[in-house]
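Late entry, written up from scratch paper. The run itself happened at the end of the previous shift, but nothing got recorded in the book at the time, so transcribing now.
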Amino acid sequence: MSDSSSIIEVTDANFDKTIAKGVVLVDFWAAWCGPCRMVAPIVEQIATEFAGRVSVGKMDVDKNPATAARMNIRSIPSILIFRDGTLVDTVVGAVSKPVLQRRIEAVL
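Output as recorded:
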């Protein structure tokens, strides 16, 4: 988990509540995943840059297998973007910050 206080730790228990309101980005990751570690600092920068407009969360798929299965997470990192509880975009794999910024701007 990151030190960034702007990132929500998403779990099976709080997932539905976390994504219910506004635009929410959830990074599905695991500690052993190299590409996840590459994306982590980008997700943290996004959390800071979009603070107040987008909620950013991270979900460890090893600790929260029920939600990962329900959301059909087949490979990680997978970044899911929700608006008011509805999935509006999915980004699979390590992507650059500009790509992620454009995907978020598109749903705001």
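Residues 7-107 form a domain with the Glutaredoxin fold (CATH 3.40.30.10).
(Scratch paper discarded after transcription.)
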